[in-house]
Write a structure and sequence with these properties.
With 223 residues, the protein is of the alpha+beta class. It has helices at 2-26, 160-163, 182-222; strands spanning 30-35, 41-47, 56-62, 68-72, 79-82, 86-94, 100-107, 115-117, 120-124, 128-132, 149-151. The protein is built from 3 helices and 11 strands; from the N terminus they run H-E-E-E-E-E-E-E-E-E-E-E-H-H.
Length: 223
């Protein structure tokens, strides 16, 4: 009876640790899009957690092919920067246990109803990061890091030509190729390493629980 109780306690502790480690892997970075006047589209990237318990200190998002007139939204100490291939935010800090949103707007070249994928790298304190860059398959595993994506909303495309860049930051000619652009090439190593670490920890926890079971089983047999 004592052996069974100890084994259950050890198993419960191992399971709790496993759940704690797996929690971040179950969450995703998500993207939402809404139509705005003059043919623009507003996009929001939402994060639900930090990196291994560390606060988020930066975010980089790969821009869609043909995107123009990209303009970031700065808030809560964050400052956005737009380049030819991505938009990024720095200067702020988001606690690891809190959700956060990063918004920007742009003019898309993709037609309404198209799916746009935004490979994203989330940077955190202590040189940690999460690469949200994997292609969505509709059947994601718990340890995967799918890139945020959204469906292009219907917009007033007729007004784009006359007002696309009237009050926006420099236009871009960014390319969009999941797993082959600068962000995905750089982030793939981080993503793969994180999966290996997670699998290794799971194996250690399961192995430890099994060892405890065998140990107390032998003691019980001798008794």
């Amino acid at each position: 009876m004592k052996m069974s109780r100890r084994f259950l306690v050890a198993s419960a502790a191992s399971f709790a640790a496993l759940v704690a480690l797996a929690g971040p892997a179950w969450a995703h970075a998500e993207a939402d899009a809404t139509a705005e006047p003059a043919g623009r589209t507003a996009v929001t990237i939402s994060l639900t957690h930090g990196c291994d318990g560390n606060p988020t200190t930066g975010l980089r998002v790969s821009l869609p092919a043909g995107a123009t007139a990209v303009k970031g939204v700065d808030s809560d100490g964050w400052t956005s920067t737009v380049s030819a291939s991505e938009i990024s935010w720095t200067g702020g800090s988001l606690p690891a246990t809190k959700t956060g949103a990063f918004a920007f707007n742009l003019v898309l070249s993709q037609p309404a109803g198209s799916t746009v994928v935004l490979p994203t790298i989330q940077s955190c304190a202590k040189n940690t990061e999460i690469a949200w860059i994997e292609k969505g398959t509709g059947n994601q595993s718990e340890s995967s890091h799918p890139a945020p994506q959204f469906e292009v909303p219907k917009n007033d495309t007729a007004a784009v030509a006359g007002s696309a860049g009237s009050n926006a930051s420099p236009s871009t000619t960014a390319r969009m190729a999941t797993q082959t652009n600068a962000i995905t090439d750089e982030g793939s190593k981080t993503s793969t390493a994180g999966q290996y670490v997670f699998i290794g920890v799971c194996a250690v926890l399961v192995g430890g629980a099994g060892a405890l079971f065998l140990k107390y089983r032998k003691k019980s047999s001798k008794a």
